[in-house]
Automatic annotation (TrEMBL):
It comes from the Bacteria. It comes from Roseibium salinum. This is GAK system CofD-like protein. It holds the Pfam family CofD. Gene3D superfamilies: CofD-like domains (3.40.50.10680).
């Protein structure tokens, strides 16, 4: 099998390519995103109009929010971001089983007594809860089984307040499948008609750690984001994978072979907007990530996050690009050419020309477009960003 590199001029946005993909999304391009968190969910939801073949490699390292209780209770990877991306890509037509979608996006009340929530969960398991009763068999039975497995393994101290039902179903499936995420992600993808592919970037149950510029070590994603806890007082110097939340115990992880194959089949690779360290860089820490990216000759695009990012305080665009390349080269090799790892930055026109020029000097082209609308400000307009990305393939 031979690989041929073809160079062509690109028009951004390209009306011809946009219209072609909009007319037949089932045959749309395989855009692969390294991302986590919720920053890309609006784009993913819009992207379904252009392609049903997008690929999303998502971080399973979160230690806060809705995932924290499940990670503590069952010693498992984080599933909140996986669940939210699956729902963003779910088929929203009648064929996509909207009853299943409604159940997966339902949350228990935050202020209800624990006994009431336990009773609501029992009703779901019994199939008498309206949200479950509305689902046809055999899908209903499959969902009941996962919730029953969760309930059986759930410690009495587990707090159901505000819990996502989708997360509980995924947790039950994880326990049912010998602590493997892949089978239950596959099942949920079929249940809600996911129009794309969503995978955890690695199978390992690990956490994030960071060494700060002041020499301090911080363990746990929830302490790095500046959202649930006060922002870091010193910039992040190095991000690493850690075995647990108690003390520094660096760990290594491998990109699974199935994810290597997904990368090798991509028509475009996108380093997606989101929290710079915990959503983007975290996806690139597993062994094999940089090498797999370098081996694929397709457009490789960085879309910098809009709005405030407490993790990247003081990092302008050139700083972020240099940092991204540095992490990729940890695996791909220090002498790996820039164009094998990153070809293009797609940014809003608000990015200063001076920063764009500095990035161009690194060997990475920068395209500044009008990507923020009045409705989306201060974030990307999903339609404008999707138009830009599909124009490149």
């Amino acid at each position: 099998m031979s690989e041929v590199t073809i160079t062509r001029a690109v028009r951004m946005p390209d009306p011809f390519r946009i219209e072609r993909f909009l007319s037949n999304p089932k045959l749309g391009p395989r855009l692969l995103f390294f991302s986590g968190g919720s920053a890309l969910n609006g784009v993913a939801q819009r992207l379904k109009r252009y392609t049903h073949n997008s690929i999303h490699l998502v971080t399973p390292f979160d230690s806060g929010g809705s995932s924290q209780g499940l990670r503590v209770a069952f010693d498992m990877p984080a599933i909140g971001d996986l669940r939210s991306r699956l729902m963003a890509l779910a088929d929203e037509t009648v064929l996509g089983h909207p009853d299943v979608f409604r159940l997966f996006t339902h949350r228990f009340a935050k202020s209800a007594p624990g006994t009431d929530l336990a009773g609501e969960l029992d009703a779901m398991i019994a199939g008498t809860h309206p949200l479950v009763e509305a689902i046809e068999v055999p899908m209903r039975t499959l969902i009941q089984n996962q919730l029953d497995r969760f309930r059986a393994a759930c410690p009495e101290s587990f707090d159901l307040r505000g819990a996502s039902i989708g997360n509980l179903i995924l947790a039950g499936g994880y326990l049912h499948q010998n602590q493997q995420l892949e089978p239950i992600i596959f099942l949920v993808s079929k249940l809600v008609g996911v129009q794309g592919t969503v995978r955890a970037v690695t199978d390992d149950n690990l956490h994030l750690g960071a060494v700060l510029e002041n020499g301090e070590t911080v363990i746990g994603q929830h302490l790095l984001t500046g959202k649930e806890h006060p922002p870091l007082t010193s910039p992040i110097r190095d991000l690493f994978l850690n075995l647990g939340l108690r003390g520094r115990t660096p760990a290594r992880s491998q990109i699974p072979e199935r994810n290597r194959k997904l990368i090798s089949s991509a028509d475009l690779i996108c380093y997606a907007p989101g929290s710079f360290h915990t959503s983007l860089v975290a996806n690139l820490l597993a062994d094999g990530a940089g090498r797999s990216i370098a081996a694929r000759t397709v457009p490789k695009v960085y879309v910098p996050a809009m709005g405030a990012d407490p993790e990247a305080g003081g990092m302008d665009l050139p700083h972020r690009v240099r940092t991204l390349l540095a992490y990729l080269r940890k695996d791909a090799g220090s002498d790996c050419p820039v164009n094998r790892l990153l070809n293009l930055v797609v940014a809003d026109q608000s990015v200063p020309e001076s920063e764009a020029a500095e990035v161009s000097a690194l060997g990475v082209a920068v395209v500044r477009l009008d990507l923020v609308s009045e409705q989306s400000a201060p974030y990307y307009d999903p339609a404008a960003l999707c138009d830009a990305l599909v124009s490149l393939v």
